[in-house]
Write a structure and sequence with these properties.
12 helices, 3-stranded antiparallel β-sheet, Rossmann fold, 2 domains, L-2-Hydroxyisocaproate Dehydrogenase, Chain A, domain 2, binds nicotinamide-adenine-dinucleotide, alpha/beta, single chain, 21% strand, 356 residues
Length: 356
C-alpha cells in the first residue's frame, strides 16, 4: 500500500467539514487504496468541538484513516501537507459590511498562505472554499510565493453542479448525462452559468444544451438567476448555508485534481487568469472551464463567446477586480495580525488589533 498522504481541512469544526471529512476519510477523493492522515485545523474556542469530530472519525473505523490530528496551530496544521482544503473563514455577522467581511477574511488567508509557504510541501494542492473564495485564494497564493500559482484553485464546482443539475432536471435526464456547463467568474451572484458549450445526452445522442432544453428564454433568464441565487435560496429554506452539496462539490473538485477529468469533458474552477484567451484581466482568480491531467489543469481555450456571454463575463470580472483591489489595499496597510471576533482571538494572528 502507498505511503499515507497528509490532508488538512480548515474550519474542521464547521458544518461543511462535518459533511466532508467522512468522504475524504473513506477514500472517495484520493482513492480507495490511499491511506490518509487527516489534519483538522480550527480556532482555539472550537477545539472541544474538534475533539468530538475526532471521536466520530475514530468510531467510523475506516481502514484508510491512519491518524487524525486536531489543532489550532498553523505550524502543525500545514506541516508537510499534500492537500489543503481551506474552508474555515469568518462568517458574515449582522450589520457587517461586505468590505469588512473581505478584510477579515483576507487577513486569515494571508496568514494561512504564509504558513503554507513555510510548512507545506511545495507540491501541495490548495483548494479555497471559504468566502469570498476567489479573492481569498488570490491572497493565499500571493502569500505563498514558493508554491506554484497553478497549485491554488477555488471552489466554483458547487455552482457548476447546480447548473448541470438544473439542465438535467429540465431535460428529464440524470445529471451525468449533462457535460461541459461552465461557470465563469466569481463565486457570487455575478457568476455567469453558461450552457452554450454544454451537451446533453438525450436517448444516447449528444445534443447541444440549447437544442435539448428547447427554451431559450429559460436558459437566458430563470436558469441563470436560479444558479446565481441558489446559495441564498438554500439559506432561506434551511436557515443554514449549503453544506452537504458544498462538501460533495469539494470532493468532486479535489478528486478531479488528483485523478484528472474525463476525456472530452471539462469542469469549472477558479484559477489564475494569467494567459487566458478570453480577455479576462490577469492577476485574478476567475472561474474558467478546465481540463485536468497528471494533477495539472489546463484552461479550455478559444471557445466562441457571443455578446450575451461577453457582457456577463465582463461584469463578474469587474466585481473581482474591485474585490482584489480592496483586498490588496487593505493588506498594503496591514500593520497587525490580530482579528478580534467578539472578544475571542481568531487563530493565526499574533500582534495587534485590526478595528473592523
Ligand atoms: N465556494 C463555495 O462554493 C462555498 C460553498 C458553501 C460555503 N462556502 C463558504 O465556506 C465557508 C465555511 O462554511 P461553513 O458552513 O462550514 O461555516 P461554519 O461557520 O459552519 O464553519 C466555519 C468554521 O471555520 C472556522 N474558522 C474561522 N476562522 C478560522 C481560521 N482562521 N482558521 C481555521 N478555522 C477557522 C470556524 O471556527 C468554524 O468552525 C464559509 O465562508 C462559506 O461562505 C463556500
Amino acid at each position: 500500500m502507498a505511503e499515507p498522504i497528509r490532508v488538512v481541512v480548515t474550519g474542521a469544526a464547521g458544518q461543511i467539514a462535518y459533511s466532508l471529512l467522512y468522504s475524504i476519510a473513506k477514500g472517495d477523493v484520493f482513492g480507495k487504496d490511499q491511506p490518509i492522515i487527516l489534519v483538522l485545523l480550527d480556532i482555539p474556542p472550537m477545539l472541544p468541538v474538534l475533539d468530538g469530530v475526532v471521536m466520530e472519525l475514530q468510531d467510523c473505523a475506516l481502514p484508510l484513516l491512519r491518524e487524525v490530528i486536531p489543532t489550532d496551530k498553523v505550524e502543525v496544521g500545514f506541516k508537510d501537507i499534500d492537500a489543503a482544503i481551506l474552508v474555515g473563514s469568518m462568517p458574515r455577522k449582522e450589520g457587517m459590511e461586505r468590505k469588512d467581511l473581505l478584510k477579515a477574511n483576507v487577513a486569515i488567508f494571508k496568514t494561512q498562505g504564509a504558513a503554507l509557504d513555510k510548512y507545506a510541501k511545495k507540491t501541495v494542492k490548495v483548494l479555497v472554499v471559504g468566502n469570498p473564495a476567489n479573492t481569498n485564494c488570490l491572497i493565499a497564493s500571493k502569500s505563498a510565493p514558493s508554491i506554484p500559482k497553478e497549485n491554488f484553485s477555488c471552489l466554483t464546482r458547487l455552482d457548476h453542479n447546480r447548473a448541470s443539475s438544473q439542465v438535467a432536471m429540465r431535460c428529464g435526464v440524470s445529471s451525468d448525462k449533462v457535460k461541459n456547463v461552465i461557470i465563469w467568474g466569481n463565486h457570487s451572484s455575478t457568476q455567469y452559468p453558461d450552457v452554450h458549450h454544454a451537451k446533453v445526452n438525450v436517448h444516447g445522442t449528444e445534443t447541444p444544451a440549447y437544442d435539448a432544453v428547447k427554451d431559450e428564454t429559460w436558459l437566458r433568464g430563470d436558469f441563470i438567476s436560479t444558479v446565481q441565487l441558489r446559495g441564498a435560496a438554500v439559506i432561506k429554506a434551511r436557515k443554514l448555508s449549503s453544506a452537504m452539496s458544498a462538501a460533495k462539490a469539494i470532493c468532486d473538485h479535489m478528486r478531479d485534481i488528483w485523478f484528472g477529468t474525463k476525456e472530452g469533458e471539462f469542469i469549472s474552477m477558479g484559477v489564475y487568469a494569467t494567459g487566458n484567451s478570453y480577455g479576462i484581466p490577469e492577476d485574478l482568480i476567475y472561474s474558467f472551464p478546465v481540463e485536468i491531467k497528471n494533477k495539472t489543469w489546463k484552461m479550455v481555450d478559444g471557445l466562441p463567446i457571443n455578446d450575451f456571454s461577453r457582457a456577463k463575463m465582463d461584469a463578474t470580472a469587474a466585481e473581482l477586480v474591485e474585490e482584489r483591489d480592496t483586498a490588496l489595499d487593505f493588506l498594503s496597510h496591514i500593520f497587525c495580525h490580530l482579528v478580534e471576533d467578539e472578544g475571542k482571538c481568531i487563530y493565526g494572528y499574533t500582534q495587534k488589533v485590526v478595528q473592523l
